Amino acid sequence: MGRRQELEKRQTLLSRFGRLIATESRLESLLTIIAEEVRNILDADRCSVFLVDAYKGELWTKIALGMEEKILRMPLGQGIAGFVARTGSAVNIREAYRDTRFTQDLDRITGYQTRTVLAVPLKGRDGQVLGVFEVLNKSKGSFTDEDEGLLRVLGTMAASFIENASLYDDLRRSHLETIYRMALVAEFRDQKDTGKHLRRMSRLSGILASAMGMSYQESEDIRYASPLHDIGKVAIPDVILRKPEKLSVEEYEEMKRHTIYGSQMLINAESRLLRLAALIAIAHHESYDGTGYPYGLKGEAIPIEARIVSVADVFDALISKRVYKGAWTLEDALAHIKSLSGKQFDGAVVERLEQCFDDVVAALEEEDRRSAVEEAVLLFQPTGQSVNRPAQA
Ligand code: C2E
Ligand code: SIN
Ligand code: SIN
Ligand code: FE
After folding, report:
1. Which atom of ligand 3 is nearest to the CA of 273?
2. How many other CB atoms are there within 10 angstroms of residue 159's CB atom?
3. Which residues line ligand 1 at a C-beta cut-off of 6 Å?
4. Which of 111, 109, 112, 115 is nearest to 137 (CA)?
5. How far apart are the first and last CA of the chain?
């Protein structure tokens, strides 16, 4: 390719880059787009974007391991990326394995062999280092000064978008975390392993939603909103909520009001997730055959989100120990739910539960392990530090 054509090609790629990064507001997808485009523009085999986590003193990056994507973290000073982040200067290396700053840690994990590396710092609006742009293994020869200039330009273009997306990401995460913590408050009084039930029923709701053919976004929304289904229980007196025996008829009538209380707490929220949570709170005890509460809605008149959460909630309630009952086995719980297919539950949802039962069991076990780890961490955590890192990837 002639010099002129090459310049024209770069021009096209650059404007495409500018357009693409302006359309994505989610940090993780933004990083994926950036890595892919930069790799192309610089004719490199790989591009990694490392971001600084100032709070933890770490750099993190997303890597692809086969079909899976993982978040990898390393101490700020380590590796070539760490060097660039610390010093704020660019680095161009012809033979990575002979450079003492290179640690091979990532290569060992990914099974990749790095030869040439070009790394430049990503700087934020105030000039602070946000992260590091790294391209690896140029297709021919090693990276040139011109490549370095180009990577700096791309870095400058990307930086403000990355900064905005990080802010949005933080906001979104604290929103999700607050929702989850609200749900914990509601369950704290009547259940010992609060976190466990919420995580499991939320995970199960998400699985059932996507099995029902709902979009990724819709399934995620259900996953995040479902833990609030019983938020109205905070308004139920202890003598009822914590009664170790069967409730009297009057007590049960009061108990049923947790659906109404919950929706009163959530109704007309501005947040899309909280509005969905309100819908789930009011309708998660409706029965498909119209015998449920509080309104006795029937069939399709019950929002699909609530029909899904209802199955997830009861399944998990059955396999959990409660003040008033012991834990059932997974098989008994499934059999019980199947026996009420088309009665209490939407048959279509029950069918999906049966179809993905292996996945469900695996997911529930994973959530149990996660809760156990979290409890252990909580016990040993010095005060004032955040425990709950956002569930990434
Ligand atoms: P929960 O404990 O979270 O249970 C949610 C739903 O799971 C129940 O809705 C019910 O459909 C199902 N479920 C839970 N345990 C069993 C069980 O042992 N057998 C059967 N067949 N289904 C079960 P439900 O019945 O409308 O109850 C709503 C909430 O009222 C319960 O939430 C719980 O907090 C409370 N509750 C219900 N029955 C009793 C009781 O006898 N004693 C006490 N202390 N609370 C109860
Ligand atoms: C890097 O900074 O390029 C990766 C870390 C290393 O293995 O040196
Ligand atoms: C999200 O989409 O994950 C949170 C947005 C919201 O409902 O505020
Ligand atoms: Fe409930």
Report:
1. 7
2. 19
3. 190, 243, 246-247, 255, 285, 313-314, 317-318, 322-325
4. 115
5. 40
Which residue intervals of the chain bear CATH 1.10.3210.10?
A: 191-379
Residue 79 Cβ < 6 Å to ligand 2: yes
Residues 6+ positions from 258 with CB-CB distance below 8 Å = 230, 232, 233, 235, 236
Exposed, middle or buried: residue 335 (CB in 10 Å: 0-12, 13-18, 19+)?
exposed
Q: Are 113 and 95 in contact (CB under 8 A)?
A: no
Residue 197 CB-density burial (10 A; 0-12 exposed, 13-18 middle, 19+ buried): buried
Element (H, E) at 382: none
- Residue 120 CA, ligand 2 centroid: distance in Å: 13
Contact, 176 vs 224, CB < 8 A? yes
Could you tell me the fold of the domain covering 191-379?
Hypothetical protein af1432 (1.10.3210)
Contact 276, 305 (CB under 8 A): yes
**Pocket residue to mutate for ligand 3, from 224, 276, 280, 305, most atoms within 8 A of Cβ:** 224
List, run by run, the mean pLDDT of 10-residue segments along the chain (393 residues).
Answer: 84 91 88 90 92 90 75 87 93 92 87 93 90 93 93 90 87 89 85 81 96 95 96 95 94 98 95 96 98 98 98 96 90 98 98 96 90 63 41 39
Peptide bond preceding 294: is omega within 30 degrees of 0, i.e. cis? Answer: yes
Q: Which CATH class is domain 3-168?
A: alpha beta
- Ligand 3 pocket test: pick from 172, 173, 179, 280 the residue with the most ligand atoms within 8 Å of its Cβ: 172
| Region of 268 on the Ramachandran plot (φ > 0 left; ψ -120 to 50 alpha; else beta) | left
Say if CB 61 and CB 72 are below 8 A apart. yes
Q: What is the pTM of this model?
A: 0.74
Atom of ligand 2 nearest to the CA of 59: 2
For ion ligand 4, residues whose CB falls within 5 Å: 230
Q: Using the atom order of ligand 1, give the atom closest to the CA of residue 323.
A: 44
From atom 4 of ligand 3, which residue's Cα is the shortest distance away? 172
Residues of the chain with CATH 3.30.450.40: 3-168
- Residues 104 and 50: their CA atoms lie apart, in Å, by 16
